[in-house]
Inverse folding.
């Protein structure tokens, strides 16, 4: 539902890039989950820009837990976390008002919100809002760890970019050319037992995809062999069942741990395609919707030449929340047995 | 919500492959939309298996509109459509009960539903259920056409399969080898004005992805350039704005018509990755969960060597329903202006 | 959501009074609940008009379970039940089309649905639709009985109507005067453990009230002492806690088993105010919205002089479904402990 | 959904009585609604305790609009408002921990949240949380005023309490006796056109009832003649239609402006029963759930001898939000015409 996701565990986002704060409400978490402010701070630090490959806008992310945590544990009531915005330079945006940034949400937000949108720094569409996802996700990640579930997202290395240094080089080269780069990141979730997920419209693939596409810059997702299935035959693609240590497993994992939208006990694996950051310093052709004419845009501001590093913790955090919801849905579906 | 999708326009699926009927409830459609039973029948015929490339189980799909249509128009009340199952051979399944078909939902359904699932022919996970999607989608497609919106899904031709005959050859070759094939299908939606879609968790990409992943066999989706973005730079990827005939458009459409989750007025374009049909006649290694031992499975039954033809109308139909919902959400978001 | 209610256990209604059938989809029931067609039939018979105090339109209610039940047990997939309409006399309605029946939904439905509504016999607003509630409720009632929960609704006897014969007299007197009567019915639910219900907008009172107000003719609801609280002092109203057989209970039950929206382990008690059936045979002043003029309406058709007997099973059935949902929500809220 | 209400316009509450702040997220309001901080402050002042008839805990309610408002107008993005808690005396509660206050949520919250609840001052169940409702409601009330809709809630005067002074006397008498009183408040909504509300589970009565029952102390609601219908005949109860100034109206308004769950254009009228404040200074019998024994409780703290004055603005505010949602649902339902 627009700024909220989930049925039993519900995350709601609010805030704008250049407003006083961004934040999140996480509702439906069970009572009694230990909450560590240090862990949340550590997770937020993974989202923060670090070094030359990312934007110079750095926030301290001095979050405040407003509600829902008492004596170090979740109470079961909604958890609100506020993260003040500090390092804001709105003047960069005001002077370009009316000139829409290509491949950003400026134009679509302007049409949708009839000119009342907070346009500064992308407003409510800014990547800044994902800080709330990471803060809430930290609590979800801890809850999942208690259940033996771990989530990790990392840049998928392929072709001529097989080391971390290769990736840094690629990003810095683009930055030097006043350009940006995209990439693919891979998420692996281990420890999910078989039977999580719902048929049809709450399929694990569907709810994860819906979540991940909310993150700015994501333009594709594939589970297991994904688009490679297109060139495979059934005899190659099918994951044969076997018994290992008394447990039913599959010999291969082309389905990425999901059959019929429901986990089969194998690791859940998916890849996310991330487009190059739209904010580049090169002059770009655009339109000034106030003057109603074509124009050339030069974006100043402070921007990431790539978000494929910062997006990893955002994906893991959001998927953790979604997975908590799916576990709660599973419990709900079994309540009347 | 599991078997329901949508907020203002809500589709609910029910039925099993070998039960008495499958069906759908479509709620929230505006009153006054003309409903043609002939058009629905025509849409259902596109989903039906046709010829040697598809399964020999053919249904007449003699649907009945139970409610919500009066004097040829939608009333605004929920529309229930029932499609009886006719050509059912359950005996094919009974003798293999306990032996799970690789890459199908048999095992995960068995775990989730604790052994109470209707296992015959995939039960509630069967592609048969998509008949309800097509029937409801026919009404949604007509409603969209009234608004100038058209949806088409077709097999994406690439590599050495550039003609329809190439694709038929590829499928028949697999069939002859007792095998199956996957593929990629492309959906193009024209006529959607700018401003449709909601921020974050009701992004156009997210809601379409959630819908499409509900369809059995779908393992990936990408919008616009999708996974190709990974190898692009921002200067190549960004869609420059221009003015054509007084309208703001983009020169390229790498973003597939969507920025920030909201339509920008360009055609909406996405690709769906479909895995090879898991049901193949070759012997496969599997597990018998009753005996608790590994075994070899030979699937008899009647199956599609590929679903990439039949899935096209299902995707278009489901996306039509989802798009009706997004138009309703847009109207709701503007109600208080 | 209009024709659907519930979060984890979801009931969806469809059908019109003079269409081919009415029906229901009940989704989210756990797998493994025994389903008895005889029990459903028995419940439906309690809703059917019986004898001189009720309408002469009698349906056989030959329902069909279309999906979701296999080998006598729920499968966990959505349960669709269809109940054909048989004894339909649409001609009674056609000749009065345009003349709205006072205190019925004719006028509001006409405005809301822009003239496309199925106006025959109240269409989708007819009490006939509650047959679906009773059919689905029968399954919910059995599921609750397995948990030790029982629901009963009966006419609240007061003043000079303290026996069943008194009530029959009152109804028949009204019938003889071509009139109708209202009344109050009381629902008592036993066996609900403490801790069921959610804070704020899923309070037990709120969800039950929302459900019960969906039933045509309901105009008031009160829990425990309800409107009598207005004349009480806190020292009289408060339910003192005590310990009985090692269990925490309250000495009185003015709160009707609910504190802060959550069950406290005492019986849940609420009263529902039902207005007199609007369909009376006396001439009434009304309006013909086609001619745009005032007119006198004489309702022929077949109608109940009172629905306070028939509504009891409808309330119990609907509350059973809602309570199943609340139990599922409770399980969901505890899933991550 | 527990702490959220609404489908297109969604209000989410968070906070505890003795935490750092309470607050609200209001999502789905159209862009372009003028927001006056002075008006919000004025509405909050109506909720604040005033004078001898109410609690001595007085908050300044220095709210902060965190998001969703830009240059004095709603942007269409979620509006978060934070209201810090200032005048908190937690020590009053700590010493009684374990002893549940009769007719409060202490016991049910303890069971539901397994001992992890923030028990201080009622925690998340405190009336303090309604400050967020009033703040969000102020924006909704202004949006409705732009549409010609006005909402007013006032104490229903009856019997020997027909003046404001009578009511003050009644409350002060109870206070002097270390006791409290309940009452009935009446809400009247004017300016709602015919056709607002949805069939069955989004009936106007149902959604309003669900909202109003969320407020602590509410135990009954009736629309129009409500429980008086029980003693009426149809010929008395039915609201005859007539034409006034070319508009279809009813001569009486026993149905409180609602037929079939949908507004008929007449004023919407409902009464809410409010129980006496459970917190009284007299010794009460209770239970200490830590010691597992009966005990006598003496509540110190600062409490309202009646909430029937303060609750009026809370009901009006919450109903305003709900009505905004129903208008948005109506627009959604008509989107495809």
């Amino acid at each position: 539902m627009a700024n909220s996701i989930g049925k039993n565990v519900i995350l709601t986002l609010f805030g704008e890039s250049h407003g006083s704060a961004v934040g999140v409400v996480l509702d439906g978490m069970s009572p009694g989950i230990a909450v560590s402010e240090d862990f949340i701070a550590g997770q937020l630090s993974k989202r923060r820009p670090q070094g030359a490959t990312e934007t110079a806008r750095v926030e301290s992310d001095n979050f405040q837990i407003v509600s829902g945590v008492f004596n170090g544990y979740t109470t079961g009531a909604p958890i609100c976390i506020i993260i003040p915005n500090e390092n804001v330079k709105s003047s960069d945006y005001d002077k370009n008002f009316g000139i829409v940034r290509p491949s950003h949400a400026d134009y679509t937000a302007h049409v949708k919100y009839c000119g009342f949108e907070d346009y500064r720094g992308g407003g409510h569409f800014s990547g800044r809002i994902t800080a709330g996802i990471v803060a809430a996700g930290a609590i979800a990640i801890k809850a999942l760890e208690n259940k033996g579930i771990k989530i990790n997202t990392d840049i998928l290395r392929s072709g001529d970019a097989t080391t971390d240094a290769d990736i840094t080089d690629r990003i810095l080269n683009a930055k030097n050319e006043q350009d940006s780069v995209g990439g693919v990141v891979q998420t692996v979730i281990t420890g999910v037992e078989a039977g999580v997920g719902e048929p049809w419209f709450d399929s694990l693939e569907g709810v994860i995809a819906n979540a991940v596409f909310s993150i700015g810059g994501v333009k594709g997702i594939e589970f297991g062999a994904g688009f490679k299935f297109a060139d495979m035959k059934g005899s190659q693609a099918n994951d044969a069942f076997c018994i290992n240590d008394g447990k039913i497993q599959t010999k291969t994992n082309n389905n990425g741990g999901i059959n019929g939208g429901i986990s089969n006990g194998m690791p859940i694996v998916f890849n996310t395609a991330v487009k190059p950051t739209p904010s580049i310093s090169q002059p770009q052709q655009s339109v000034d919707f106030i003057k109603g004419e074509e124009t050339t845009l030069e974006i100043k501001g402070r921007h990431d030449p790539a978000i494929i590093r910062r997006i990893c913790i955002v994906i893991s955090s959001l998927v953790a929340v979604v997975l908590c919801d799916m576990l709660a849905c599973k419990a709900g579906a079994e309540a009347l047995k």
In short: The longest helix of chain D spans residues 310-333. The longest strand of chain D covers residues 183-190. Chain D touches chain C through 108 residues (CB under 8 Å). Helices of chain D lie at 37-47, 91-94, 106-112, 130-145, 164-176, 204-213, 234-237, 310-333.
